[in-house]
Amino acid sequence: MRKKNVVLENVPVTAYAAEGKALARVEGKVVFIEGGVVPGDVVDVKLSKSKKDWAEGKAIRIHQHSSDRVTPFCQHFGLCGGCKWQMLPYELQLQYKQQQVADHLRRIGHLELPAMAPIIGATQTRRYRNKLEFTFSNKAYLTDEEIKEAGEDWPRRNALGFHIPRLFDKVLDIQTCHLQEEPANLIKNTVRSWAEAHNLSFYDIRQQEGWLRNLVLRICTTGEVMVNLVIHHEAKKEREALLQHLLETVPGITTLLYTINPKKNDSIFDLEPRVFFGKGYVEEKLEDFTFKIGPKSFFQTNTYQGETLYKVTRDFAGLTGHEVVYDLYCGTGSIGIFVSRQARKVVGIELIKEAIDDARENAAANDVKNATFFAGDVIDICDDAFFAEHGAPDVIITDPPRAGMHEKLTAKLLEVAAPRIVYVSCNPATQARDLALLSEKYTVEKVQPVDMFPHTHHIENVVLLQRRY
Ligand code: SAH
C-alpha cells in the first residue's frame, strides 16, 4: 500500500477533510479522496500519493452512492468548479462545516474550546453572490460526447463561462448560473449571442489573440447593476454596437463600463475602466451603511451573509462606545465602519493603497468621523510608535487572507496584549495555527462559524479571544 498508482477497491467514505476532500480509513491509514465523493459512498480510489500514515487519491468509480445524496440543481454540476457541494442537502453541508471548524481548532490548535455556537446558515442559498466574472475563450471545454458530436468543428468552439479547474486555457460555457441574481444570465447570454452573430472573436489565452476577454457583473442588493466588459484592444465601432445593444436589450443595467486589457494576464487592477453609461460605480448596503463599489473595488461577495458576519464580529468585540478598535487587514474599511458607532475610535490597516482610498471615501460618505485608515503591510505598520500614537487597543479585529497572520504579527499582538481580539477567518486551518500561538496569553471565549458560500466547501469562522489575567 506504499506504492503510487495503486487502486484501493470498495472503500467506504466516512467523513470530510479540509478543502472539500473526503476521507476514508484503510488498514489504519487515512486516505484523502478527491472527485466529488461524499461520506456514505463506497468507491474505488486510485492513489497519487502514499505515505506512511496517509495517502491521497482520486475516486475512479462509485460502487454505492450515499443515501444522503440529493440531485444537484445545476445543469453544469460536475464540470464547473463552482457549487461543488450541490449533491449534499444544505443542512448536511452546514454540519460538515461546523465539524471541520471544531476539528481544526482541536487538532491543529490543540485548543480548549468553549461550546461552539451552531454555524449560521444562509437564508438565501442560491443567487447570493454580488460579483461574478465570466471569461471568453475560443477553447470551450467539451466532454468526450460533445467532441464526438462536434466532429470537425472541434476544438474551435467559443465559450463564455468559467475556467475549468486546473485547465488554464479551457472555459466551460455557462448557460444558467445560480450564483447571482438576474439579470446576470440575461446579460451574459445577450453578449454571447451578439458576439457570435457578429463574428466577434473570443480570446485565445495561449496565442494571446482575440478581442473579447472578460465580463464582470456586480448585482447589488440595492438593485444596482454594473457591467464591465474587458476587451483586448479598442475597436470603437464593434464596442459601441455591442454595448448599445446590451443596454437596449437588458433592462436594469445602471452602469456599463469597458476596460482595455492588452496584457498577458486577466487582472484589471492596473488598468483604467472607462464609463460607457451611468455613474461608473454601484452602491451596496450593510445595515444603513452605504458602500461605493467601483469596477476595481473589493467587497464581500455575499452581501447578506457579509452583514451577518459583521454583526457577529461587532457583537464579539463587546463595544460600549469607549473603545479604541484596530481593524487589521481592513480592505475597504467595511468592518471598521460597521463597528464605528459603538467605538470611540477605529484604526484600519490594509496593504492595498486603493482599498484604503475607498475606505476613507466610504467613511466620509457614511459620516464616520472617528475612523482613520493606513496603507501598508500590517507587520511594518504595527510597531510600538504606531500604537503609542493611535492609542493602546482595547479590541483588535483581524481578518487576514487565507494564509493567516504572519508570525511577526502574532508575536506583536502578544506583546501589545489587547484585552480582546476578534479573529475573522476564511481558513480555519491557519486560524487554528495562529490561535495556538496566541494561546500563550489568550483564551478562546467564543467560536461562531458563518456560512458565506453555500454549496461550496469554503468556511468563514469568527473567534473571540479574551486575554488571561
Ligand atoms: N476585512 C476586509 C477584507 C479582508 S480580506 C473585509 O471584510 O472586507 C484580507 C485583506 O488583507 C485584503 O484586502 C488584502 O489586501 C489584505 N492584506 C493581505 N496581506 C496584508 C498585509 N501583509 N498587510 C496588510 N493587509 C494585507
Which properties best describe this structure?
469 residues; alpha/beta; OB fold (Dihydrolipoamide Acetyltransferase, E2P); Rossmann fold; 3 domains; seven-stranded mixed β-sheet; 11 helices; 22 strands; 25% helix; 29% strand; globular; binds S-adenosyl-L-homocysteine
What does this structure look like?
The protein is of the alpha/beta class and 469 residues long. The chain has three domains: 7-68, OB fold (Dihydrolipoamide Acetyltransferase, E2P); 94-124 and 288-467, Vaccinia Virus protein VP39 (Rossmann fold, 3-Layer(aba) Sandwich); 131-282, OB fold (Dihydrolipoamide Acetyltransferase, E2P) (Beta Barrel). It has eleven helices and 22 strands. It has helices at residues 90-107, 144-150, 184-197, 236-249, 303-317, 334-339, 353-365, 378-381, 384-390, 407-416, 428-438, and strands at residues 7-12, 15-16, 22-26, 29-34, 42-50, 54-64, 131-137, 159-164, 167-173, 212-219, 225-231, 255-260, 274-277, 282-286, 289-293, 324-328, 345-350, 371-375, 395-398, 420-425, 442-450, 460-467. The strands form four sheets. A seven-stranded mixed β-sheet has the order 9-8-7-10-11-12-13. A seven-stranded mixed β-sheet has the order 18-17-16-19-20-22-21, with helices on both faces. It is globular. It starts with 6 loop residues before the first strand and ends with a strand. The mean pLDDT is 95. The chain binds S-adenosyl-L-homocysteine. The site of S-adenosyl-L-homocysteine has 16 residues, from helix 6 and strand 17. Residues 298, 300, 329-331, 334-335, 349-352, 355, 377-378, 399, 401 line the site of S-adenosyl-L-homocysteine.
